[in-house]
Specification:
- The chain is an alpha/beta fold and 197 residues long.
- The chain has one domain.
- It is built from 7 helices and 6 strands, in the order H-E-E-E-E-H-H-E-H-E-H-H-H.
- Strands 1, 2, 3, 4, 5 and 6 form a 6-stranded mixed sheet that branches.
- It is globular, with a radius of gyration of 18 Å.
- The relative contact order is 0.18.
Length: 197
């Protein structure tokens, strides 16, 4: 199975597995040369390191279904999803559920509730104890469902080329997608051998 676009992923999830999990994977890269005008755009807001970011979609069985092109890490996850056309695909496509982290909050309203994120914090200060307990239970339940995408990203980063990329940043999209294709092939082979036992 080779899903080449995000539209293929949405169709696949709609046909067989109605739940997908999405997240952004950051891959460290070399720092741009000093004095370059775009030198700051590769600095990740989360890790404060030079990185590129790729959107990863897995299914509920930890299989990597698709990896998007690599973008500079200063761009937010929700912006990547919008630029890839995820909002339109989910709003007009089959009924699927996509689990996401807090970086995608707001997409649920634009996709008819198909993107599920952790609950918003309603109280900024002095939240009642019952509310904190309820929110923590909801957050843990959501996190335990979407942990599978973190496992998929970890499998990607097990490949040396993505642990820390020391080559040219211009080739990162090709490298990420090549590794994702090899990993998908490996995971399909593992699944086939498990079913035959």
């Amino acid at each position: 199975m080779r899903l080449r676009s995000l539209a293929d992923v949405v169709d696949h999830l709609g046909a067989s597995r109605p739940t997908g999990i999405i997240d952004g994977a950051e891959i460290r890269v070399r720092r741009p040369a000093a004095g370059r005008k775009d030198c700051d755009k590769f600095i990740s807001g989360k890790n404060k390191q030079n990185a590129v970011k790729s959107t990863v979609v897995t299914d509920s069985e930890r299989r990597v279904l698709w990896c998007g092109p690599a973008w500079p890490a200063s761009c937010a996850d929700i912006t990547h999803a919008r630029q890839l056309g995820l909002v339109k695909l989910l709003a007009e496509g089959p009924a699927v559920e996509v689990l996401a982290d807090a970086g995608y909050q707001g997409l649920g309203t634009h996709t008819g509730g198909r993107v599920v994120t952790p609950p918003h914090r309603k109280f900024k200060k002095n939240a009642p104890d019952w509310y904190e307990e309820m929110r923590e239970r909801q957050r843990k339940a959501h996190s335990s469902r979407r942990i599978r995408v973190e496992h998929g990203i970890a499998h990607l980063k097990n490949w040396r080329a993505l642990a820390r990329h020391l080559g040219r940043r211009e080739h990162m999209s090709d490298t990420v997608q090549a590794v994702a294709g090899l990993l998908a092939h490996q995971q399909t082979g593992d699944l086939t051998s498990t079913r035959q036992k």
